[in-house]
Write the structure tokens for this entry.
Amino acid sequence: MASAAMRVALAADCSRPTSSGVVTSMLQLREGLERRGHRVIVITVETPGGSGPEPGVYRFPSLPFNAASGFRLGLVSPRTLARILRAEGVQLVHTHTEWSMGWAARCAAGSDRSPDGAARGLPLVHTAHTLIDAYRHYLPLGEELPRGLVRAYLGRFLGPYSAIVCPSERIQNYLASFLPGLPAVVIGNGLNRALFDCGSRRGEIRERARGTWGVQPDERLILYVGRLGKEKRVAELLAALIPLLQAQPSTRFLMAGSGPGRRALEQGVAGAGLESQVIFAGALPWDSMRTLYIAADVLVTASMSEVQPMSLIEAAMAGLPVVARRDEATASVVQDEASGYLVDSDAEIASRLAELLGQEGVRLRFSQAALALSWAFDLETHVDRIEGLYRGILDSRSR
């Protein structure tokens, strides 16, 4: 007998048309839950360039958080959200942000403790998508803000939560280092593999996508996907790639993403005389991003601030080998010397890229390994675990 449908609210400070790992993860979860018959509403912010009303999505006015970040500050009262939760019959609230919309949804759920210690209100689940310490430079006072104050803030925010979803052991260990006893569970991100299944059209899609960016059939294409911000170490990545690009004029480097670091990167490219080889694609709709993975020959990143990067999961789904800095987050997605290379210094990035670009057989073998590895991140597995988590919490409350 089929289990009863649940009514869930997802809350975030970003959604379409913003392109980010958080948006992809949240909307993929919504899609998977709705396919199973659950009612899922999204509580988020209005974003410039948005596509207008969407069923089940509640958007609220927002302001830029600061000029550099691109993040938004939602303007909504918990009382307004509480009315929506009641009208929708929501049983559980799942937040995907620690900031404005997360706080509003947390307060609207009324999940706190009564004097006798019993839980009341709607149960709360949170996904910890971000290593907050790596993003302190976007907060007021920037890195001058004491780390302990940021961690105290997280402790206050997460206090009433029934469960904290950690996409990787890295974020679980980070939270446990200053919030011992937190009800954290590791559940990896998930993605619908069918979105990358091009079948016999793969060659056609690859050719068309490369043509869009002026990449010739005989040129090699290195891809970076993510924010152009300090926390992603894009300046260090470009510095590592400049000698390779200068030595190989038929190699192109495409950066898909936006952020405060773009101008400095453009100046660095011009100073190295590489304007014809480096492409700044800007922020792209997710449908366009899928074709870029297929168009590229290898994905590269020097970021060490990730929790479990969706870009690496997307690359695996597309069969795209990866060169990345080694840490707990990248090691959970990339199998070293099988689906890509994990390196211990920026200096190793170029040499590993040169190996992959110069050896078709190795690149093909890594591509097949990436596709096999991608099954571990299938959306249905992710939804199975989240659905089970929700049911366990609701069953416990009902008892």
